[in-house]
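Researcher: Structure prediction, please.
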Amino acid sequence: MHDIIIIGGGVSGFAAAIYAGRFRMSTLVLTGDFKGGLITWAKEVQNYPGFKSISGMDLAKSIEDQAMEYDIDVRRDTVVGISKLNDGSFEVATRKGKFSSRTVLFATGTKVRNLGVDGESKYKNCGVHYCALCDGYFYKGKVVAVIGGSDSAAIDALMLKDLAEKVYVIYRKDKLRSEPVNTDRVLKSPNVEVIYNTNVTGFIGDTMLKSVRLDRPHRGSSVLDVDGVFVSIGHVPQTELLGGLGVRLDQNGFVEVDRNSCTNVPGFFAAGDVTNTEFKQAITGVAQAVMAVYWAHNYVDKSKKENF
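Model: Predicted structure follows.
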């Protein structure tokens, strides 16, 4: 019986493992096939305290390496089910076996919603990006496009306008659906141009992205030259494993947590991008994970005393 099973091998999961190790909890980390999380897609991270500049891959690896200094068990195994037992503990089933634990920390993160058009996978990180905050700096003085019309797309455009020479916002509808204050700022920005009622149908280039193909002409051409594109059509929380467990999700499918990273299910905690926190960053996910482990430790300690 473990004290805690951490599901997810991103920065939140391994930050949690550091503290679980420090609390001397019997800890199992299940990482699945994708270690490091979405932060590993960032070529350069300049907003994580302690590092002026570090690649997302190196940041994730450094946190993992620190966690491995403690007495924890890490397994690359895919979780296929989670259930709560009659005694209040949890059983986590994987492709390779079953594990029991007094608590669970769910830190599976999100996956980006891909556009799903020709060339997208080819130019990923070679002109096609999914995080303006992560990769926007590389396009200082260049021409970029943001695909999407939600608040996240507007925020990306507003951040990029201070870096890029020109920012196109390409949206499939006739009106942006971002918050009014952000919509107004986008429309009033002199170097931002919104292209309405238009879809991107393909990415074009050689070793790097050179242009995008549009489904309707813009200024007489169906090809728009850009140096970079930021796909901002949302993220999908990876909560498929929670069906039947009774964990409360919000209207967008994210796990609802309180300020202590507790869910509505006793002993079940969540941290990082999979939760319903509004500001999703590596540093906020790490902070959530640390809080989760603190309260998980208290939960386990109390449980052991009650059953002594």
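Model: Helices lie at 11-22, 56-67, 132-135, 151-160, 180-188, 282-306.
Researcher: Thanks, that helps.
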